[in-house]
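Re: export button greyed out
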Amino acid sequence: MAIKTYDEYYDRLKKMNRNLYMGGQKVDRTDERLAGQLRVIKETYDRANDPEWEDLCTATSQLTGEKINRFTNIHQNTDDLLKKQLMTRLICHRVGGCIMRCMGIDVMNALSVITYEMDQALGTDTNKNFINYLKYWHENDICANCAQTDTKGDRLKRPHQQVDPDLYVRIVESRPDGIVVRGAKIDNTTAPVSDEIIAIPTRFMTGKDNDYAVAFAVPADWEGVKMLVRPAYHHKRKYLHAPIAEIGDAESYTVFDDVFVPRERVFLDGKGDPRQTPFAGFLALLFAHYHRHSYTGCKPATSEVLASAAALVSEYNGIQKEDHVRDKLSHIIGVAELVFAAGQMSAYRAERSPSGTYIPDEILTNAGRRLAGEEIYNEYKIVADLAGGLCATLPFEEEFFSEETRELANKYLMRNPEVTAEQQHRCFRGIENLVASELAGVMQVAGLHGGGSPQMETITMMSRYDLEPLKGIARYLFGLQEKLPRYDRPTVTPRKMLERFYKI
Amino acid sequence: MAIKTYDEYYDRLKKMNRNLYMGGQKVDRTDERLAGQLRVIKETYDRANDPEWEDLCTATSQLTGEKINRFTNIHQNTDDLLKKQLMTRLICHRVGGCIMRCMGIDVMNALSVITYEMDQALGTDTNKNFINYLKYWHENDICANCAQTDTKGDRLKRPHQQVDPDLYVRIVESRPDGIVVRGAKIDNTTAPVSDEIIAIPTRFMTGKDNDYAVAFAVPADWEGVKMLVRPAYHHKRKYLHAPIAEIGDAESYTVFDDVFVPRERVFLDGKGDPRQTPFAGFLALLFAHYHRHSYTGCKPATSEVLASAAALVSEYNGIQKEDHVRDKLSHIIGVAELVFAAGQMSAYRAERSPSGTYIPDEILTNAGRRLAGEEIYNEYKIVADLAGGLCATLPFEEEFFSEETRELANKYLMRNPEVTAEQQHRCFRGIENLVASELAGVMQVAGLHGGGSPQMETITMMSRYDLEPLKGIARYLFGLQEKLPRYDRPTVTPRKMLERFYKI
Amino acid sequence: MAIKTYDEYYDRLKKMNRNLYMGGQKVDRTDERLAGQLRVIKETYDRANDPEWEDLCTATSQLTGEKINRFTNIHQNTDDLLKKQLMTRLICHRVGGCIMRCMGIDVMNALSVITYEMDQALGTDTNKNFINYLKYWHENDICANCAQTDTKGDRLKRPHQQVDPDLYVRIVESRPDGIVVRGAKIDNTTAPVSDEIIAIPTRFMTGKDNDYAVAFAVPADWEGVKMLVRPAYHHKRKYLHAPIAEIGDAESYTVFDDVFVPRERVFLDGKGDPRQTPFAGFLALLFAHYHRHSYTGCKPATSEVLASAAALVSEYNGIQKEDHVRDKLSHIIGVAELVFAAGQMSAYRAERSPSGTYIPDEILTNAGRRLAGEEIYNEYKIVADLAGGLCATLPFEEEFFSEETRELANKYLMRNPEVTAEQQHRCFRGIENLVASELAGVMQVAGLHGGGSPQMETITMMSRYDLEPLKGIARYLFGLQEKLPRYDRPTVTPRKMLERFYKI
Amino acid sequence: MAIKTYDEYYDRLKKMNRNLYMGGQKVDRTDERLAGQLRVIKETYDRANDPEWEDLCTATSQLTGEKINRFTNIHQNTDDLLKKQLMTRLICHRVGGCIMRCMGIDVMNALSVITYEMDQALGTDTNKNFINYLKYWHENDICANCAQTDTKGDRLKRPHQQVDPDLYVRIVESRPDGIVVRGAKIDNTTAPVSDEIIAIPTRFMTGKDNDYAVAFAVPADWEGVKMLVRPAYHHKRKYLHAPIAEIGDAESYTVFDDVFVPRERVFLDGKGDPRQTPFAGFLALLFAHYHRHSYTGCKPATSEVLASAAALVSEYNGIQKEDHVRDKLSHIIGVAELVFAAGQMSAYRAERSPSGTYIPDEILTNAGRRLAGEEIYNEYKIVADLAGGLCATLPFEEEFFSEETRELANKYLMRNPEVTAEQQHRCFRGIENLVASELAGVMQVAGLHGGGSPQMETITMMSRYDLEPLKGIARYLFGLQEKLPRYDRPTVTPRKMLERFYKI
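Workaround output, generated via the alternate export path:
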């Protein structure tokens, strides 16, 4: 079957070459510090194999007609976008936040559009390679990381202006059979447990930066690929096992140490064919766009996880009926609702690109993602506010179980006689994991930066928004123009951008 | 034809009895201080008669099958809701803000549901009267005010507890042929130029408040109805005529001075039939709900009008490319997009009530309306910020035209050589009207309170939101419950509320 | 006596030449549309003559040793700054907001410093003229406007680059006996009822803009000075007279139509002596600084006026004990407290300039003024929120007094039996004036822009803040530098700026 | 000498009885998991012994006349308050945030006032005990924890209503020679390394809660005292040692397991003398007040530490000149300035209590502390925003030093050629510690809750603020009262509260 089980996936990982570096050592993908990250990814395989979730977590391959994991699906219509978003939301609830597998499918959707557009514009033959590669995905239920963020060196200089030319990933050599790449990508969530790494540009590239216009896919343990791994996970529980405590994150600082990529896995090669260079930017933006649309699914879930914890601890604290508690919960819920609605309506207003892939509305997606990013720290504040200081000062688990202290520790934890000491303990321990742990810090930063910070969304949004027709409203009202056409808020879609660029 | 022209409507007004009081005098509906309000309503007749707007501004009567003005339509499906919202948005652009005719159709939709539900629950026969009344609307393209807000006296006391029993509108007498009502309603926008006044309760009523459970419709010049009118409009322009300067508002403080209402125009009579009393609250809430959904149309338009003016004056001031200008415009635009998306998704998630009328999602509608209300003052701030102080200090129009000063006045107004002095003048005069006028003050208050303040939306939202399933997420994650069902954010819909109440 | 009465001041106005243009006509300073503005200024004369306010509203002339109106005082010590701020706050309460006379004394303080510094740096002899002029102030209790804001033309171009060279006020001719100036200044509050107009630059000037480096004082009715006046005031009350209804504003768009200024009234002349040009910027900034410090007095008062109205209407509405009301009041009060404290501490940290004049701390003053500006619209929102819609829909005064409607109008206005209908009426009428009137719009814009918008305060604040010592904290903590000196947040004071510039 | 060195203090700790429980074991105060907490406290001893800091970090004993550590000083005048606040700010810079020793001296100041007032009101003899105890402090440079927060059980019930009567600390027995107490206190920062624990009530107590009106001091290792310790610290650095990495926190969940307290260490005993019960609340509030005033010192420092890191990483990232960076830094700085100014002005407006101890202004202190609490999460957001995702994904330290990866790891870290790879590394490692670590989570919660959450400050502020005189402003302006007295914003000081309560 095209859909794989977690065990099948894990077996693949076990067989991979050792190219992970952690704490000064070379380690296998079975290293226990990766267990938390694996636990998250497991959810994506389990649910696709779960009959109760089949409607949401599976799709039909456009290539093979087979049932596939939705995390490998290219959106063929509005319904695919809606289901992707809903799946993301619901599955995130189960892991207490980010599901960490979306960037793979987000970049695949972007590649499906851009390789096609590029072929149309330049007469290249890249989409064929992409389709073959997609087939491999569909047949193997591939888990991938999208490696986009270059280390960027001096941010006021373009790639070719850097003192060290390698500070953006670049093509050292372009040959008929493939390319040799050098450089590093950072912030690569899930990369340490991915089958594949797909690297794409991080920004627009112009003439002198042809070498940096590069996109490709390699197996995660490919020769020359070296991952410096940064895991984050919770204190291991001894007594009170719980899903929240099992999840974790693994980030990679991925070095491409003169890596050869065969031609059929190259999707953009500005060095070999400088005409391709402008597509670097389109690809960068389109991946970001799909990824931001994914955030309209995961971020409402994150908000709901936080609201859920806030509501639960308010109940345990006995304050759930107070006005300020209702107001605060309502604030988080309102944000979640608005962000999710933004993503849904982006799907309803999606445009079918010439490649057949659907692209959600950009202005609305960015407006939604931005709101989510702006509010994330505030939502953590609300949970901490309603929980009280104990979520940051709770004694270690052992104190509630060791003979000498357990009775006293549990006695004084009691708040509401309907709630047992263990329930109290579980609740505060859970909130500690959620808001006052190393992983919480990582999740805050991810909630802000993932898919781009609010700053980036504002820039993208305004680059897509045409202010001239908007100004027409004031011009009409102020008597500066005679008539006011029906205002149809225009979007400068990717297609329109390409058309403007290529005059096609 | 069922759709009337503005002239036909205006002819009706001209024939009405004199029951408007303004500035110490009894005046006709042709009083020039009402011209601004009429100019706004005119738009709703003109567009319904405009072939270019026909698709949006007309609908098909469910009763007669005839083409009707959408401002008299009962929403028969999701598409009706979407079109109502979009019509509201686009038509508001043309009057620089509130279109002021929505409350009539919002209360009619609420009555269509509640009279039907009440008949089902109690075996009454009210919906038939409503249907007849609706037919009258469809045939005559009726413009109506919904008079909901009681003066309320001491707000900590229920209606029957007030020192003066008339501080909420009440039924003084209930007879077989009708009822006699006494009291006053306030904040009745458009009432001075409406054909009809539809009065409904402002809150839930309980046993002792049967007399106050009352809903009815009367012609606006009906015997005993007295309107104390408060108009708001701009300084009359002598030279630079512009749509913004022509609009205005007329509010009424409407007194029901022992008014007899014939039975066929009575939709709720708690005095005659105390079993009807609980429906007072359902009706109050459902009207508020439809009205808030209308706000998801008008409020994005108001935001866009403000953003439009802000963008235009930024262009004239030559600062349109500055980062902070982009950020501020983007903020207003983002709010408009999110609020509109909230209303659209509320329509997509609408529930068909047993009466056949569609009811948008309540949680999302409230989340959207609340964001709009929270941001309205901030949006005015942004326009004033980008315009600069001149929008509040611009000399009178005459100084730019009188012989002695016109040359100097216009010379120094120049900013950008591509923009003429008159264009500058028009722009700043328009912004003065928009943000630093009496009408601006009224519009700010309306943008905050219309349909209920953010406070009310939070309360409604949380009364519809079931926190228990939400808490399930944290319970699962923290190991307090074994399984996590797929989270389908539940709404306590009006139907469910009725079912709970009547055990039906 | 050096302190004049309002009548003495008003007599001066009556004698002035007619150079005000309003509504197409040339008018006297006794025009009734200026009555509101005069009512505000009256307060500044009355209080200085009121024994109960003498301690606060008078000072001692540094020149004559006589008792003078504090609105003509040059700050000789910290106590002067504290009293100026407190006087501003308390006197603003009495006029419901801006006292409108501070800009005159703010610019005088700035001139006292800059003329002195310039003389020191360049060997010029300007301070002597200033001192003579100040003596005239002290002897006559002068009311003045500071005309700073140029119309600015294309804001991306410097003064000399404008298509029309007159878009910033400039010196057309510099002669031994004086200068001839041409141009216009806008947003000149109080100018129509001022004795004097003091014009200063609006920005830094560089080499090619010597002609624009100009500061001078002229009587407000001086030959060639033409004021296009824009008044704002409330609907005249017929029955319920109240201070709030009597106040008003008068703005001027002041044209200098080739005005000759005698040398002894010239304080900066970059055309005659280009070495003076850099002082244009120092003067512009220092006036802004004193004016912002004044805002730390008036703005808390404005907030308190709004909070006061909000508290009163909450009492009348019977909601004063609700949590959300307390939270909202507390928010306004908190802002007022913080802004006032910022101004007070700026006084405590003031620096004595070589001229003897005290200069408050710039960073803190800007932080305080910025908070005030950021919150002003929000404060209006809170008042409107707690008042309810009636503040924007209240029928005209006459309806509450005319025979036909007064009984009904007053009956239904009742809320709380302890409050009479007239009290209710007064309260809502007052709030209408405060938040939903033309003047309210002007006050909102003034609250945002007066002294410079939040944007400007951020820029100023950061130009005074030296980030290098601040970064030292992180450098020490992160192990990037060995030692951490005691952090004394440094300010780049005006003196330091001058020293850097002149290497003095 | 009265001032002790860190070593002398540490020697005391080493001799203490084992009553700390951590991770299931009984441990000594030398446990390495407490090293971070000790490192923070060390700063308070080192600076008092440092001649460069002597002016700030030492004071003069009111009892012995000797030089003492300012962390043991009772504020005798405004200057003491100003110095305490400034010391707190400057010393916090050195430990990257909370100095963790202020609660001890804050509670001592509160006790100095309340024991005196109680003696005055009731004729008790408690202040004498306090003075003796204070002498012990002065002679030994005591480090103490204030244990205030009870676990509180069901928060809607009062202490005596709880199912388990021990959920608030209570007096089990009151005897002539002392009292026996039972219960637990939580969130006790620094307690594991303190000499003394001072327990005080957490709320107002009324008649039936006499047993809970209790305050006392015991040595931290006293019989029956058991601390369940929760430490938080950073990953131990192997290579890049830095102050930020050495700091930590240790919280205690402190159980009083039938502890006997000798009479001379009892400061409140409602069981023995029920007349003392009302003082429970006054003491609770006054400690909170002093502690909030301390926050006006530490919180600006925390903000400055965050701003410093944000400014440094912006420089390293090469974006320091961008407008949005300036705006964000300016926001943090502005908050720091305003909060510090609030604390300073609270000192200037301090009231001398009858005991001689100075009490800062409560309204302003609360306004300042609240702003700090409201903004803390936002400030973390800004640092993360400007740092970029790398602060949460940085590989472990070893990867930058191990032979196999160090070259690649450091090569790609380079941003700005003026900054070495190690400097980059140090900067991002430091920011990781600051914003994406377990300790960061604890500091966020502490920044929100320490001294009371913003909710509590609003409540306190409004309980001290008399709205009646404020309403007078609107009453005057609206014509509801004839005259407006000079508005002197009144504070209901602790003294006034006591007077009202005791009619003294």
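Chain D has 17 helices and 14 strands. The button fix ships in the next patch.
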